[in-house]
Amino acid sequence: MNALQRGACAIVGVAESDLGQVAEGLSPLDLMGQATHRALLDCGLSLRDVDGVFATTSQSRMPTLALCEYLGIAPRYHDGTNIGGCSFMSMVAHAQLAIQAGLCEVALIAYGSTQRSAGRSNVAVPDVNPYEAPYRPIYTASSYALAASLHMHQYGTTREQLAQVAVAARQWALLNPVAWEKNPLTVDEVLGARMLSHPLTVRDCCLVTDGGGALIVTSAERAATLRKPPAYVLGVGEHLSHYHITSMPDLTVTGAARSGAAAYAMAGLGPSDIDAVQVYDAFTITTLLFLEDLGFCPKGEGGRFVADGAIAPGGSLPVNTNGGGLSYCHPGMYGVFVLMEAVRQVRGEAGRRQVAHCETAIAHGNGGTLSSQSTVILGSAATL
């Protein structure tokens, strides 16, 4: 990633497809197509301008080929990276490399999933691990429950502190008109919900929804001529540490420590320079781990950091301002939505949940069972 230049590219268009539980008969490609056309409308470009396509989904073996056929385009450059929910952050970096190298000019990054509508049919299942399968874990909740259990044991993190993450996400979601969850949530309700995999209840776990999203990335020069203020790519970083949770080097330290460090170094910024934080919250424990590993609080202090509403509306650090995967939407691979919210905050387009004077935002993605981590730092024109 050393060839990447700070601010050389920008995200210029973002959009969701229909979300929640979509109309019967819609496919993941339909949702990718919806999001693509809406993202192009957002920035004032058309399909004729797209010459780079980056796509993934767990419901297609060859999503980039399928999407290009669906849209009727033949791009000069394509990428089907799949490292789980952080694939889209990595695709931002890959798209910038391609644009800087002259391999394409306008890159589309797209995702779609009908996991709620499809149920267990036509949705990918994890590879079997003979060392874990005999214990009959609930994939992926049991994996994250291991990390939560060790964090609680090692640092004194409490169930109430984990619950505060879910409560804060719900408070943000209530400010987002397209969020799935519409009712307030309390710590007691999180603790009293059905236990899924100890110590995590169902309210510690992400939603199961349908949905798709799309991003349009282009050069800084072209971005300056388009409809909306660009969100410039200031820094990126990625790290792979394991596949199965039983091979994770330390259950309380994720690859975000390395991907975040790389992104900060490229951006020339640190945690104190970030105005809005968007992290992949598949489970309440992931928010704590990423806040620690991205430098917003010391290792082991995540639970105490969030305990008094620090990450909720009105708190000291705005985190997951769209409601996150816990309360906004979570159609399987959530990272594209993390990026969209970061872009909207930098643009000043987030409505009632807008962070005041937001010039920088970090978008951090997670894949597998804390396996792959990818970080993107975005900034307004004032940060160049």
From TrEMBL:
Gene3D superfamilies: 3.40.47.10
Domain of life of the native organism: Bacteria
Recorded GO MF terms: acetyl-CoA C-acyltransferase activity
Classification via CDD domains: SCP-x_thiolase (cd00829)
Pfam families xrefs: Thiolase_C_1 (PF22691)
Keywords: Transferase
Domain Thiolase C-terminal: 237-379
Record's protein name: Acetyl-CoA acetyltransferase
Originating species: Pigmentiphaga kullae
